[in-house]
Structures are given as C-alpha cells and as structure tokens.
Design goal:
Layout: E1 8-10, H1 28-40, H2 47-56, H3 58-65, H4 71-92, H5 96-111, H6 123-135, H7 141-167, H8 173-183, H9 186-189, H10 191-194, H11 201-205, H12 207-234, H13 241-249, H14 253-275, H15 283-309, H16 318-324, E2 326-328
Antiparallel strand pairs: 1-2
Helix pairs in contact: 1-4, 3-4, 3-15, 4-6, 5-6, 5-7, 8-12, 12-14, 12-15, 13-14
Length: 357
C-alpha cells in the first residue's frame, strides 16, 4: 500500500444495511460452461474484447445477481451480461454515427431473431440474434415486449453518451443520475427477473413499484461508479458520478467518494421505507411481485459482490479491498502506447471500423 496519503482513497460502503446477503445461483457450475462456450464461439471478436470478457467473469456476475432464477433464465442472464459488456466495449470506441448504426443493427436483431444477418455485418448483431433466439424461449410475452423496449432505451442513451463524449459535455449531478439509469442498462438488466412472471403493466406503473425499481437502479449504477472510478479516471473517462461531483461541488476525491456514499445510503433508507407502503395487487400477483422485488434486491447485492470478485475494476486484491475499502489511485494514462498498467483500463482498439448502414 502506498505511503503517500494523496494516492489512496477510501471506498464508502453504502450497502451495510441492505437486506440481502451474497447468494449464488445453484445452477452456476453447469450454466457457466455453456454460456462461456457460446461467447467463445464468436472467433472474430477482437482480442481485447475477449480479454475484458475473461477478467470480467460475466457468468459469475449473473449467478450472483440472479440467484433465484431457474437454469434457463440463468443461462439467458449469463448471455445477456456478455452481450452488454461487448456492446459497451464497442460503443466506448465508437463515434456517434457508429453508435447509431450499432443500435440500429442490434435492435433489428432483437426484433428478428430468426432472420439471418447480412454478410459483412458487425459481429455484435449476430451475437444479439443468437442471444434472443434462445433467451426469448424462457420469457413470457409481456416480459419479452418489456425487454425489447428497455433495450431500445439503453441503446438510445448510449448513443447520446457518445455525443456527450465527443462534445466534452459534463452533465450536472441530477441529470447524470437520471441519465445513468439508461446508460447503465439497469432496467433491461432487471428484465430476466420478470421472464417467468405474468404481471400486468399496472403493477409496474404503480408509484411505489416505480420508486423501488428506480432506487435499485440508482444503487446499481452509482455503486458501480464508485468501484469503477479508478480505472475510468486513469483512462480519462469523465462519465462517472465521482468525477461529476468533484467538478460541480469543487471538492477532492475522498470528499466526493463520501458524498456519493452518503447519497446511496439515503437511497437505501428511502427504499426500506417504501417497502412498508407496498400495496397488495391481489392474491394472483402478490407472490410474483415479491419475487420481482427480491430479485432486484439480490441484483444490487450481487453486483456489489461481483465488483470485488472479478478483475473488472480491481486487477488484484479485490476481496482485500472489499474489507479495507482502501484503493491506490492509478496514474493517469497519456496514451495507449505508454500504458504500463493492466489491460483492463485500456480503451479498446478501433473495433467498429466498418458497419452496415
């Protein structure tokens, strides 16, 4: 550990009072291999994307985030986590136009999973097609429609994020938090929890359910920003709540970390209060609503645990950092050629050189 106090920052732990503990899906050992083999079958994926997939352990994320789901839904969740990571890697290196084209072909693949993709198209469309061709079989019609809608919102938001990056736009704190719900794909990420549920739209339109869902979404994205801050600041990425808070409140890193941690703790308290006012939706639906809420709560905890158990944000010593909360600040990288830190903080190569228009 570095002795210079300026090079060390403290991670807050806003989930101390979270009601769910780390739990892993019992189907993980079997499904892990199936999903991993499927992803690896796409041989044309750029090598750096494959490396990021390897250190990210997306199958572990799914098993920790969806511990209540059956084997088929867990497989869909593993594949979905892989798809999200690949899409993020592509769009992180994309121009606004390229991001728009990526969104176009991915949404077409989701809406037409049985249609062959055109030759020469970016591989992510075929990955998306195969994912949904299999995964849609374990989802009821209502949840299929909601998933596609949520995924579309995500792709639109990611496209806007590329515009922000090109224009060097720094959103204010409130705008960023709202925008992050979409760029983080959290609403789409919660969809596998619904795959086996036959809940009407009225349930999700209920104000209490909406507040509970938004609270879980914000906890996922903001806690993720806390843990990913180090690698993101090293590569110059300004789209992080910690950077936003430092900029707008004109405070230092540890102060910003504490501000975000306190903000997340308030979300936890409001969430627990709202649970007390959950209405009944009738005997037919109350059990399913409980599954949905339990599923989201487990996702929040699973996402937190995975952040330290994978190498996505902490290349080594993740579980030790989870206990001590002390992190050594990585040096700011000048260019990819001059990097001497682990690969996970590299920007990917220009992996979207040519796309179908």
């Amino acid at each position: 550990m570095a002795t210079d106090s300026q090079s060390v920052f403290i991670l807050p732990d806003p989930l101390k009072e979270w009601p769910k503990k780390r739990t892993i899906n019992s189907h993980y050992p079997q499904v892990k291999g199936q999903s991993s083999e499927w992803i690896q079958s796409f041989h044309t994926l750029p090598s750096r994307v494959k490396q990021v997939l390897d250190i990210s352990k997306v199958e572990l994320l799914a098993a920790l985030a969806y511990p209540l789901e059956n084997k088929d839904v867990l497989r869909a969740s593993c594949d979905l986590m892989g798809l999200f990571l690949i899409y993020d890697e592509y769009t992180d290196a994309a121009t606004p136009y390229e991001a728009q084209q990526l969104a176009k072909i991915v949404m077409d693949a989701l809406q037409n999973p049985d249609k062959a993709r055109p030759a020469g198209e970016c591989i992510i469309a075929e990955i998306t097609r195969q994912f949904w061709q299999l995964s849609s079989k374990c989802a009821l019609e209502r949840s299929r429609d909601r998933f596609i809608k949520a995924f579309r919102i995500y792709t639109i938001a990611v496209g806007q994020e590329t515009q922000d990056r090109v224009r060097n736009i720094t959103r204010n704190i409130e705008d960023y938090i709202l925008f992050r719900r979409s760029t983080g794909a959290i609403k789409a990420t919660f969809m596998p929890i619904q795959f086996g549920l036959n809940l009407p739209d009225e349930v999700f339109e209920d104000p209490v359910i909406q507040r509970l869902t938004d609270a879980c979404a914000d906890l996922c994205t903001l806690v993720n920003d806390l843990y990913s801050y180090n690698v993101e600041q090293a590569r110059g990425d300004i789209h992080n709540i910690v950077t936003i808070v430092m900029h707008h409140k004109k405070i230092g890193l540890n102060e910003a970390m504490k501000w975000v941690g306190d903000y997340c703790s308030e979300i936890v308290h409001h969430f627990l209060d709202d649970l007390r006012y959950l209405p009944s939706f009738g005997e037919e639906f109350d059990g399913q609503v409980k599954h949905y809420l339990d599923g989201m709560m487990y996702y929040v905890r699973g996402n937190d645990a995975w952040s330290f158990e994978s190498q996505k944000y902490f290349i080594e010593g993740g579980t030790d950092i989870q206990k001590s909360r002390k992190v050594v600040l990585l040096p700011r990288l000048v260019s990819s050629q001059e990097q001497s830190v682990p690969m996970l903080i590299h920007y990917p190569e220009r992996i979207v050189k040519s796309m179908m228009t």
